[in-house]
Amino acid sequence: MSLDEKRKKIEEIDKNIIELIAERTDLAVSIAEIKDRDGLPITDKDQEKKVMARVSMYAETFGLETDRIENFFQMLIELNKNKQRKSR
Protein backbone atom coordinates (compact mmCIF):
# COMPACT_ATOMS: atom_id res chain seq x y z
CA MET A 1 0.00 0.00 0.00
CA SER A 2 1.40 3.40 -0.98
CA LEU A 3 1.75 6.41 1.31
CA ASP A 4 -1.24 8.10 -0.36
CA GLU A 5 -3.34 4.96 0.02
CA LYS A 6 -2.44 4.70 3.70
CA ARG A 7 -3.34 8.37 4.22
CA LYS A 8 -6.64 7.82 2.43
CA LYS A 9 -7.35 4.87 4.72
CA ILE A 10 -6.60 7.06 7.78
CA GLU A 11 -8.97 9.69 6.37
CA GLU A 12 -11.73 7.05 6.13
CA ILE A 13 -11.04 5.88 9.68
CA ASP A 14 -11.15 9.48 10.94
CA LYS A 15 -14.57 9.93 9.33
CA ASN A 16 -15.78 6.71 10.93
CA ILE A 17 -14.52 7.85 14.33
CA ILE A 18 -16.42 11.14 14.00
CA GLU A 19 -19.57 9.29 12.95
CA LEU A 20 -19.26 7.03 16.00
CA ILE A 21 -18.72 10.02 18.31
CA ALA A 22 -21.87 11.61 16.86
CA GLU A 23 -23.80 8.37 17.39
CA ARG A 24 -22.50 8.14 20.97
CA THR A 25 -23.53 11.74 21.60
CA ASP A 26 -27.03 11.11 20.22
CA LEU A 27 -27.37 8.17 22.61
CA ALA A 28 -26.19 10.36 25.48
CA VAL A 29 -28.94 12.88 24.66
CA SER A 30 -31.55 10.12 24.72
CA ILE A 31 -30.14 8.97 28.06
CA ALA A 32 -30.48 12.55 29.33
CA GLU A 33 -34.16 12.46 28.41
CA ILE A 34 -34.62 9.29 30.47
CA LYS A 35 -32.63 10.77 33.37
CA ASP A 36 -34.73 13.94 33.20
CA ARG A 37 -37.97 11.94 33.15
CA ASP A 38 -36.80 9.85 36.14
CA GLY A 39 -35.38 12.84 38.06
CA LEU A 40 -31.80 11.59 37.88
CA PRO A 41 -28.69 13.80 37.70
CA ILE A 42 -26.68 14.02 34.50
CA THR A 43 -23.47 12.94 36.20
CA ASP A 44 -23.25 9.30 37.24
CA LYS A 45 -19.80 8.72 38.73
CA ASP A 46 -20.34 4.95 39.04
CA GLN A 47 -21.16 4.71 35.33
CA GLU A 48 -18.15 6.87 34.45
CA LYS A 49 -15.91 4.51 36.47
CA LYS A 50 -17.35 1.55 34.56
CA VAL A 51 -16.65 3.27 31.25
CA MET A 52 -13.07 4.02 32.27
CA ALA A 53 -12.46 0.47 33.43
CA ARG A 54 -13.89 -0.89 30.18
CA VAL A 55 -11.91 1.41 27.88
CA SER A 56 -8.72 0.78 29.86
CA MET A 57 -9.18 -2.94 29.31
CA TYR A 58 -9.81 -2.37 25.59
CA ALA A 59 -6.73 -0.15 25.36
CA GLU A 60 -4.57 -2.82 26.95
CA THR A 61 -6.01 -5.45 24.62
CA PHE A 62 -5.02 -3.39 21.58
CA GLY A 63 -1.64 -2.29 22.94
CA LEU A 64 -2.58 1.37 23.42
CA GLU A 65 -1.56 3.71 26.22
CA THR A 66 -4.33 3.39 28.78
CA ASP A 67 -3.82 6.87 30.26
CA ARG A 68 -4.21 8.51 26.85
CA ILE A 69 -7.31 6.48 26.04
CA GLU A 70 -8.78 7.36 29.43
CA ASN A 71 -8.09 11.05 28.74
CA PHE A 72 -9.79 10.75 25.36
CA PHE A 73 -12.85 9.10 26.88
CA GLN A 74 -12.98 11.64 29.69
CA MET A 75 -13.23 14.30 26.98
CA LEU A 76 -16.01 12.31 25.30
CA ILE A 77 -17.88 12.00 28.58
CA GLU A 78 -17.61 15.76 29.14
CA LEU A 79 -18.75 16.41 25.56
CA ASN A 80 -21.76 14.18 26.15
CA LYS A 81 -22.60 15.75 29.52
CA ASN A 82 -22.47 19.23 27.96
CA LYS A 83 -24.79 18.05 25.17
CA GLN A 84 -27.10 16.49 27.78
CA ARG A 85 -27.25 19.77 29.74
CA LYS A 86 -28.11 21.72 26.59
CA SER A 87 -30.87 19.29 25.71
CA ARG A 88 -32.69 19.80 29.03
Question: How would you describe what is shown here?
Answer:
The protein is mainly alpha-helical and 88 residues long. The protein contains 3 helices and no strands. It has helices spanning 3-37, 45-61, 66-87. Helix 1 crosses helix 3 and helix 2 runs antiparallel to helix 3 (66-87). It is flat. The termini are far apart. The model has no long low-confidence stretch (mean pLDDT 94).
* Biggest sheet features: none
General form: flat
Average pLDDT works out at 94
Tell me the number of strands: 0
Portion in beta strands:
under 5%
Instruction: Give Rg in angstroms.
Output: 16 Å
Category from helices, strands and their pairing: mainly alpha
Q: Which parts are unreliable, with pLDDT below 50 for 5 consecutive residues or more?
A: none
Q: What string, H for helix and E for strand, traces the elements in order?
A: HHH
Helical residues, percent: over 70%
Q: Could you give the distance between the termini?
A: 48 Å
Question: How many helical stretches?
Answer: 3
What are the defining features of this structure?
3 helices; mainly alpha; 88 residues; flat; 84% helix
